[in-house]
Amino acid sequence: MSTVSLHENERKSSSQAENLLEIQNLKTYYPVKGGFFKRTIGNVKAVDNLSFEIRRGETLGLVGESGCGKSTAGRTILRLLKPTDGKILFDGKDITKISGKSLRDIRKDMQMVFQDPYASLNPMQMVGDIIAEPIYNFSKKANAELKKEVMDLLDKVGLSQDAYYQYAHEFSGGQRQRIGIARSLALRPKLIIADEPVSALDVSVQSQVLNLLKDLQQEFELTFLFIAHDLSVVKHMSDRIGVMYLGNMVEMADKNLLYVKPLHPYTQALISAIPSPDPRLKKERMILRGDVPSPINPPAGCPFHPRCPMAREECTKTKPLLKEVKPSHRVACHLY
Ligand code: SF4
Questions:
Q1: Does the C-beta of 320 come closer than 6 Å to ligand 1?
Q2: Which of 9, 78, 85, 86 is deepest in the core (most CB within 10 A)?
Q3: Nearest residue CA, atom 7 of ligand 1?
Q4: 149 contact partners, CB below 8 Å, separation of at least 6
Q5: What is the pLDDT of residue 108?
Q6: What is the model's pLDDT at position 289?
Q7: How far from chain centre, in Å, is Cα 154?
Q8: Residue ranges per domain, the chain?
Q9: Does residue 134 have its Cβ closer than 6 Å to ligand 1?
Q10: Span 245-273, mean pLDDT?
Q11: Where residue 35 falls among pLDDT bands split at 50, 70, 90?
């Protein structure tokens, strides 16, 4: 083997050791059927050529308006949806096409916290059973041991042990989300994908649940993909942030770089819309024209060009690639 390929292999294996998850050119398309024979006449390009990585122990925030593909990306990574193309490497393994027992085994290590704690838990099931179910399915532990583990998890998420015998419908939204978090931790996963975990909760309990997730991340050595549309929430939680628009990653940077010096015009517009904590400080808001185009028929060139105040001719023809323009700062825009 040549010295160059040896170095290349060393570089790849050290990045795999550092990264828990690597996504390469991931696409998730939904076919659109039409006509008398219900043939495929097009595709909804929900996720279109997404590439990023998540380092072990970090929280990567994924933001964007509703419909930008961030939840679809999360579900495709967990293999709840079938990827159309691209690669998902988890913990050094290619999991893009695995199925059956291999997929079942990998699911122990990747769990999801859902947006709606009212819809994601069976209201007629006892909380103890909800949390015990995944442990039982994977390990068939004896009842006493199982119960002890569930009691321990209730304690970790700040619920009393009495909750074990109660039903999910007896709890408030914040408490239900704690139950959902306990269930997601039951198999001691490495990665948690939290999809808008506080957006259905009262503002008064949002920060409690966010702080709980941060504490559990330390205690359980978790890596998070944190999906949300609220930039203040994502800033509170994340180490690095990726901004999605129409199925594409348009900017990715360390949290502070992204909030202080956003480069992509779309990120600049999102950040300009965050209210200032000090009302005396006037912020100039960048208003975007028009709506997000349909992902069935995305614009040619840069997907953001119909709304971009800085668009020029090149933007209507050539799609910009996500590239590193400064250390730890990637952007997909012809301006850079
Ligand atoms: Fe705007 Fe052009 Fe940059 Fe797209 S590539 S964000 S249209 S300036």
A1: yes
A2: 78
A3: 305
A4: 132, 135, 141, 186
A5: 92
A6: 81
A7: 25
A8: 18-109+189-331, 115-188
A9: no
A10: 94
A11: confident
Give residues with Cβ within 8 angstroms of 17, minimum separation 6: 92
316 CA to centre of ligand 1 in angstroms:
9
Of 310, 325, 331, the residue with max ligand 1 atoms within 8 A of its CB, to mutate for a pocket test, comes to 310
Q: What is the mean pLDDT of the chain?
A: 90
Which atom of ligand 1 lies nearest, measured to the CA of 320? 5
Cβ–ligand 1 contact at 288 (below 6 Å): no
CATH of 18-109+189-331, one of 3.40.50.300, 2.60.34.10, 3.40.640.10, 3.40.50.970: 3.40.50.300
CA–centroid distance, 128 to ligand 1, in Å, is: 51
What's this model's pTM, rounded to 2 decimal places?
Answer: 0.90
- pLDDT for 175 beyond 70: yes
Split at pLDDT 50, 70, 90, the class of 248 is very high
Q: In the structure encoding, which two tokens stand for residue 289, read together?
A: 């024209």
Beta strands 248-254 and 329-331 are antiparallel
Mean pLDDT of 202-208: 91
Find out whether the beta carbon of 335 lies less than 6 Å from any atom of ligand 1. Answer: yes
Q: Which two tokens stand for residue 221?
A: 């050595």
Would you give the DSSP letter of residue 114? -
Contact predicate 145/154, CB 8 Å: no
Phi/psi of residue 102, each to 5°?
Answer: -60, -40
Q: For residue 315, which atom of ligand 1 is closest to its CA?
A: 2
Judge whether 258 and 274 are in contact, CB under 8 Å.
Answer: no
CA 176 – CA 118 distance, rounded (Å) = 7
Q: 302 C-alpha to center of ligand 1: Å?
A: 6
Q: What is the pLDDT of residue 295?
A: 84
